[in-house]
From TrEMBL:
SUPFAM superfamilies: Zn-dependent exopeptidases (SSF53187). GO terms for cellular component: endoplasmic reticulum; extracellular space; Golgi apparatus; lysosome. This is Carboxypeptidase Q. InterPro entries: CPQ (IPR039866), Peptidase_M28 (IPR007484). It is found in: Endoplasmic reticulum; Golgi apparatus; Lysosome; Secreted. Homodimer. The monomeric form is inactive while the homodimer is active.
């Protein structure tokens, strides 16, 4: 069984793609690093996917889906960060009402960093195939007030990234993915 965390690496048309979506790729990578450093071993596999071809019609996501859809019942949740890694506010979630209640409970663990909101929808070109077929999905929600200042521009460089905000985003991503991966049962569909 798999909990998938992800970001993509293909918005480097004019800038460096540090915010779109290098930040999402970084925090997803950080999930695995933090869990390993803490010596934790969840019951399910945590899988990192660094998508490509998102801007070209989601071709990387489509191919991944085609290769793995036969095991769709083993995908517990698919998570994609693609709205920058600014100050996080919560998680967008798509799934059953019962699964949403579980995710809301998980988010209470993030009260110390004041990131507890669960929004009604999850967004992500790269996880859309999975969500369409009933796999619960999650997307990081953060303060996007400055997102379009840098999106697909020469300004999308590492200087946009705030290490403290990225650490908070990584904390959210790590807590949610680890807890789901370590629960007795998969999220209800």
């Amino acid at each position: 069984q798999v909990v998938l965390v992800s970001g993509h690496l293909d918005s480097w048309d004019v800038g460096q793609g540090a915010m779109d979506d290098g930040g999402g790729a970084f925090i997803s990578w950080e999930v695995l690093s933090l869990i390993k450093d803490l010596g934790l071993r969840p019951k399910r596999t945590l899988r990192l996917v660094l998508w490509t071809g998102e801007e070209q019609g989601g071709v990387g996501a489509k191919q991944y889906y085609q290769l793995h859809k036969e095991n769709i019942s083993n995908f517990d949740i698919v998570m994609e960060s693609d709205e920058g890694t600014f100050q996080p506010s919560g998680l967008g979630f798509a799934g059953s009402a019962e699964a949403r209640d579980i995710v809301k409970e998980i988010m209470t663990l993030l009260q110390p960093i004041n990131v507890t909101d669960v929004y009604d929808t999850a967004d992500g070109t790269d996880i859309a195939y999975w969500m369409r077929d009933g796999v619960p999905g999650a997307s990081l929600r953060s303060d996007i007030s400055k997102y379009f200042w840098f999106h697909h521009s020469q300004g999308d460089t590492m200087t946009v990234q705030d290490p403290n905000q990225m650490n908070l985003c990584a904390a959210v991503w790590t807590v949610v993915s680890y807890v789901i991966a370590d629960m007795e049962n998969m999220l209800p569909r």
